[in-house]
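Entry:
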Amino acid sequence: MIRYLAASVGTALAGYSVFIERTALALTRLDLAFTRLPRSFDGFTILQIADLHIAHWSGVEKRMEEIVRGLDFDLLALTGDNAVSSKGARLLRAFLERANPNRETYAVYGNTEHKGRAGRRRREDLDWPGLRVLVNEHVLIERDGDRIVLAGVDDPFTRHDDLAGALAGAPLGAFKVLLAHAPSTAGDALQAGVDLVLSGHTHGGQIRFPIVGALYSHLRKHKRLVQGLFEGPQLARILGEDPGGMRVFVSRGVGISNLPARFLCPPEIALLTLRCPD
């Protein structure tokens, strides 16, 4: 009897993970105050979409578009593992043309864009007007005469990142936002004076358990940067030094890899609002 009950519970949980939670996309809203943020950027919003892994357009992708179309944001950032096929890239382009018309979207590559011959094709698939892929480089975002730096590194997990190159020539003392697919670059970002790191890659662990948390982070460095916002003492313990005012946000992402399931780790997109202290 107990064996049958356990089997039934296991089947129910598996079904929930595959068919319900995997598509239960949520919007995470964060207000982040920074002392170095120029006053004119108070209220500036960044919509981060991580780990889309788009191959087709179905439940979770349709839900994402519903959410995004109801939002007002200043900048849209894709933080890697954007599409897993040429068809997926075409679907992504069509989505961005609908959801972010007449504005540039910024992106970085993830490890999916560096998987052998297919990785090269994935990078080529992301070459179109309106999508600016930051490959170890930065741009300046201007607002009312003030500027902030938006930098992007190539994928840290596959060791294609060059943070020094990404920030070369950036205005000294400028507020800096870094797009990095994997959060393992956080320690280097702190040394480089970055204020906010936006990452993904981990999928939040994808499968999590109470108390234990994620069983696998898919990180080589700073393995506790699995999901959510990290700052202050918590971030100091992970990096081994005082992070000052730097924050790291690691998105659970939209898509999946390896296992077609999520458990206690629903997909998310994030709307981050930058604030000046009161």
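The first strand starts at residue 26 and ends at 33.
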